[in-house]
Hints:
Distance between the termini: 47 Å
Structural class: mainly alpha
Helix content: over 70%
Shape: elongated
Amino acid sequence: MIDHDAELMRGIRQKNKESFEQLYKLYYKKNYLLAYKYLRNQEQAEEIVHDVFLKLWNNGREISIKQSLGAYLSRSIINGSLNLIKQQQRLDAHVESFRYAIDEEEEFNDDAQILEDKLQRLEQAIETLPPQCKKVLMMSKFDHCKQQEIADALNISVKTVKNHLTLGYEKIRMLMKKDLSLPIAIIFFNFFK
Length: 193
């Protein structure tokens, strides 16, 4: 690690806000552009970068950086971006599996179109969740993480995880409840228990 990076990390480990601000100003733009290159989404790119900087601030004493600070941050941004892409792919696969199951049971008629519309509404409902809430919900349902694991990974409390899950489930239920027929509603509500 170069001397300037080592000095910044010393300051961060001592919770020196000026060191953190210097680090942020020095590396934010480059890392935002890197995240955006992978995600092609401004909000997600900003969230990944903020998460990495927050983790560095909160866990600076435990983090061991052997390469340059810039390389460490870049690797963290890439890993976070790839993890988010994998989560989205898992979500897409789950939605696609719902579509496939419904297609096998239903012929291509009006009923199948109604079910397709409802699946799209579910996907849209999930997309309306705030980013952190969506991330918690996906980690819980698609990565099968326990609440404590989610809390540790995101540097939030278990209570905050529970609040995100409750908010996410309620918002999805409210958006989906109006249109769902009983059989498909049972599938979705069991999925989002």
